[in-house]
Amino acid sequence: MKKYYDEYMPKKGGRSLKLLYTKVPPIYGFPIIGNTLSVASFHPDFKNWYYSNFIHLNSSPLNYTMSFYKCMTLPQNCPFINLNSVERWIIDFKWNNSIVDFLIDAINHSSYVYLFVDESKLVNSYTFNKFDSFTHDVMVFGYNLLEGKFNIAGNFSNGKYIESHCTFEEMNAAFLNTNILQDRFNGIILIKHRKNAEYAIHMPSIKQKFYDYLESHSIALRDGEQEFMNEVFGLNTYDVLVDCIEKIIRDPNAGFNNVRPFHFLWEHKWVLLDRLEFFLHEDLIERNPAVEHLRNTFLYLYNSALESRNIFLKYSLFGNSSSLLKVRTRLIDMKSMEKAAISALCEFM
C-alpha cells in the first residue's frame, strides 16, 4: 500500500488520512435520508429539526410506493448543511479526470462528497458482480492513503444503509462506469456543515402537521408540488398498502413485491414513538398516566409495523401470499388506533 502514500502524500499536504464526522442515522429508508441525517446530526439543534419533521407520508395508488414527503430533496431542505454542485466535466478539466484526487482534495477541505457511481464496481456492495452496471448514490467522507481506501456510506448491505470502504481503484472504476442518464444529481454534490444555523421547536407548527396528517390533506396541493399531486397523504396511506395486499392476494403474480413501503411505514412509527420520548425528555408535554398509555400505543404501532414489514419481506423472498391476510387486518386496525393516538397527542401538546 506504500504506493498510495508515496503518490499522494507530497501533493496532499502531508496528511495520510482524514475522516469527517458521521453518526448512525435514526432512519435510512433511502441513502439520501441516511446520509443527510448522518452529516446533519453534528448540530446541537438537530433533534429540534428532526422531530419537527418526518411527519408526512405520501404514497402512490398506482405503483404502491411510499416515503417521507419530499425526502429526495432533504439535503436542500436541511438547515444544517450547505450544498455546492460540481459538474462532472470539471473533474476532467481540473483534476485530469482523477476522481481519487478530487475526493481527497474535497475531504481535505472538510467537504463530504455525494455522487452517483456504478455501485456494482464496489466490492463491499451487495451489487458487486451481480449486475453489469448499477448506478446508485454513494457518500464519501474519508480516506486513508496508507491503505489506499475511501470511507463511504450507502445502501450496500442488501439495500440497508451502512458505512463501509472501497479502494481507490474501485472508486475510479465506479466513477468512470457511471450511467450518466441515471445521475439524478446531474453532477457531484459537496456538503459542508453550516454551524451558525439555529432551529427552535415550535409546537403549534408540529401540531398543525399532525392535523394535516390525520385529515390526509394533500400537502403537495398546498405546496404546489406537481410531482406529488396524484399521491395519497397521511393516514390514507394505510389504504394504499391495504389495496396493494388485496391485489396481491387476488393475483400473486401481480409483481408487487417491493418491501420498501412497509419499511417506511415502520420508520414512520419509529419516529412517532421517538418524538414522544423527546417531548417528554424536554418537558414539552407533561408526564401523566394518559401519556404513558399513549407511549404504549405508539410502541404497539411500532412493533406491528415492524412485524408487517418482516412478513412482507418473507413474501417478497418466498412468494407465500397467504401470510399477507394477517398484514391486511393489522393495517386496518393500525390506522384506527393511530388516528386516536395522534389525536390524543395533539391534545397534550
Description:
The chain contains 13 helices and 10 strands. With 349 residues, it is an alpha+beta fold. The strands form 2 sheets. Strands 1, 4, 5, 6, 7, 8 and 9 form a 7-stranded antiparallel β-sheet that branches. Strands 3-2-10 form a 3-stranded antiparallel β-sheet, covered by helices on one side. Strand 7 and strand 8 form a beta hairpin. Helix 8 packs antiparallel against helix 13, helix 11 packs antiparallel against helix 12 and helix 12 runs antiparallel to helix 13. The termini are far apart.
Fill in the keyword field for this structure.
349 residues, alpha+beta, seven-stranded antiparallel β-sheet, 13 helices, 47% helix, globular
SSE order and pairing:
Layout (H helix, E strand, L loop, with lengths): L1 H7 L8 E3 L11 H10 L5 H7 L4 E3 L6 E3 L5 H4 L3 E6 L1 H8 L3 H10 L3 E7 L16 E10 L4 E9 L2 E8 H9 L11 E6 L9 H12 L4 H5 L8 E2 L3 H14 L9 H22 L7 H30 L5 H25 L1
Antiparallel strand pairs: 1-6, 2-3, 2-10, 4-9, 5-6, 5-9, 6-7, 7-8
Helix pairs in contact: 8-13, 10-13, 11-12, 12-13
Biggest sheet overview: 7 strands, antiparallel
What would the principal axes of the Cα set say about the shape?
Answer: globular
Elements, N to C (H/E)? HEHHEEHEHHEEEEHEHHEHHHH
Percent helix range: 40-55%
Which class do the helix and strand fractions yield?
alpha+beta
